[in-house]
Amino acid sequence: MKHNAKSGLFILFLLVALSNAAFSQNPLPGIAAETNINANSYPRILPDLRVIFGVKAPDAQRVQLDLGKKYDMQKDADGFWTCTTDPQDPGFHYYFLIVDGVSVSDPASESFYGCGRMSSAIDIPEAGCDFYALRDVPHGVIRSTNYYSKQTESWRPINIYTPPGYDKDLNKKYPVLYIQHGGGEDHRGWAIQGKTAIILDNLIAEGIAEKMIVVIANGNVSRGGGGYNRKGMEPFIDEMTKNIIPFVEANYRALTDQKNRAIAGLSMGGGQAFYTGLQNTALFGSVGIFSSGIFGGISTQGAPAFDAEKEIPGLLTNSKKFNEQLQLLYISVGEQDMRINATRKQIGIFKEQGLNVTFETFPGDHEWQVWRKSLHSMASKLFK
């Protein structure tokens, strides 16, 4: 039985690996997705934002597409399976192929670390939205390296964006934005899916954002548990303040005063930014919280309602102090995100108590298009 199972999986992957590039139809409808590998023809995006997916698997009995919603694919005489989805919202969407019950990545598409595994994804373009498109402007560099964590007693990966000109003017120091990914993602998220370097390059070239270093760390740190509350965030806070910041400031030309240090994050990372930044206003002069569930709106069975004053003492009762300490408190959420009502309610409480907060919403759900726009907006307001 063990031998047969291994043989079956081996055959399955051979079938799926027969690239859809072999399938041809003239002319092909729509356009090939930019996330396709090399010249693979599928997936294809139609003008109405429906998407045609295809895969060559002649010996498979059943193939489905899992794009949040499952679609049954149809097989032609040559063993090529296709399906056409409903219109998709602009933005970045993870997906999987299910071949005879086994969920696999699409061999014709790029893979990304998301959903806690390597996943296929498709980036649906948004008309008129080009702030994260490559342009003929000076470009910074994302440097992939490792630092030693005394907390985990291990080497940990980290991505660091340095702005255009960093390697030329060796006397110049820069402000730093520490930005965190969401659950099921890691230090690759903002560097790849989030298109951080392109967004910052374009903003800097337009004179909208200051030149800055952006640090993209792996926020998956735990000491036997954790959670989205003050106590549960302690491992990450220790990692950031005792390991990541000292590493960055020892190895990069970073400005080290509070007003030139910011922290932000999406979803889980938004909670990390909330607790780390607001508990350490002597370290961080700006805090950004994108699409976080800490304010409510997600399934938190048995969890008490969010109490900002309990989580960050003084945030409501002494909002004047936080206003004086923070240059920017930025909060955003997608307009179709189930977190939006709870977030709006909390923003109302903050403002009633006199806390200065910049709040923005963007079309979209809990996904990268909203977070790219959040970074674009927040970065244009930082370090002024």
How is this structure best described in words?
By secondary structure, the chain is of the alpha+beta class. It folds into 2 domains: 2-124, Sandwich (Immunoglobulin-like), CATH 2.60.40; 141-379, 3-Layer(aba) Sandwich (Rossmann fold), CATH 3.40.50. The protein contains 9 helices and 19 strands. It has helices at 2-16, 189-193, 196-205, 234-251, 268-279, 308-311, 319-325, 340-352, 368-379, and strands at 31-32, 44-45, 51-56, 63-67, 69-72, 74-75, 80-84, 91-99, 102-104, 111-114, 117-124, 141-149, 154-162, 176-180, 213-217, 261-266, 286-290, 328-334, 358-362. Strands 12-13-15-14-16-17-18-19 form an 8-stranded mixed beta sheet, sandwiched between helices. Helix 8 (340-352) links the parallel strand 18 (328-334) and strand 19 (358-362). Helix 3 packs parallel to helix 9.
Spatial arrangement of strands, main beta sheet? 12-13-15-14-16-17-18-19
Strand content: 25-35%
**Oligomer state of the chains in this structure:** single chain
Intertermini distance: 65 Å
